[in-house]
Amino acid sequence: MNIKINIQKITQNLPSGCQLVAVSKTKSAALIQEAYDAGQRHFGENKVQELVPKFETLPKDICWHMIGHLQSNKVKYIAPFVYLIHSIDSERLLAEVNKQAAKSNRVIPCLLQVHIAKEETKFGFSTDEVKAFIKSSNIATYDHVRISGLMGMATLTDDENQVREEFRTLRLAFYDLRNSTLPANAAMEILSMGMSGDYSLAVAEGSTMVRVGSALFGDRS
Questions:
Q1: Is residue 219 part of a domain?
Q2: pTM for this structure?
Q3: Does a structural domain hold residue 79?
């Protein structure tokens, strides 16, 4: 498993303006360092308890992405340094991020997670809910967060048409919001969709950020 070659392969196939986030959950600091040495700077973690020690031991110019389901009581541990939170799935969570960001004197960029999959296990707003939420007067009161876009996960299935359709649903919501009048602290800049098994479909449907783990590092430890 040559991480450097894998990074080159994937980045060569990404369009200009599409960011690769290397999903480093369960991976050792040594493997992350290897990817870092190959030029990778954006890494995604699923769990706060894994993310914090990696932040402490690895180079400080790494951009750490929180991509997993985030519990409100864990926000305080990552608020001082997290680069982007992909998984805001409720107003309660956004309010907590805003509160902890204020304590760290930061504005934390966040993505709203939209439930596009047919599976019941995924978190997130419906497309109607996300549109209503981002246009609500409440959003503007959160002055220590910035809504930077949307994130979604497609159903884990071999049916490419279904996966494409789910990504398309998210893209349409993204552009609908992009063309709307949004609060000052919201802008549709990032469309985070696509993982190791489906990122090429996500890119074809307009993804600007893909979250790739096993295709870079090999199967999960």
A1: no
A2: 0.96
A3: yes
Amino acid at 135: K
| CA 102 to chain centroid | 21
Domain count of the chain?
A: 1
Asked if residue 220 is part of any domain, the answer here is no
- How many helical (H) and strand (E) elements, i.e. helices and strands, does the chain have? 9, 8
Beta-carbon neighbour count of residue 140 at 10 Å?
Answer: 12
| CATH at 196 | 3.20.20.10
- Residue pair 6/14 in contact by the 8 Å Cβ criterion: no
Q: Whole-angstrom Cα distance, residue 197 to residue 65?
A: 19
Instruction: Show the domain range for 206.
Output: 3-211
Residue spans of alpha helices (H) in 119-189: 127-134, 160-178
User: What tens digit of pLDDT does each residue of 85-134 get?
Assistant: 999 999 999 999 999 999 999 999 999 999 999 877 668 999 999 999 99
What's the token pair of residue 210? 């893909």
CA distance 107 to 50: 23
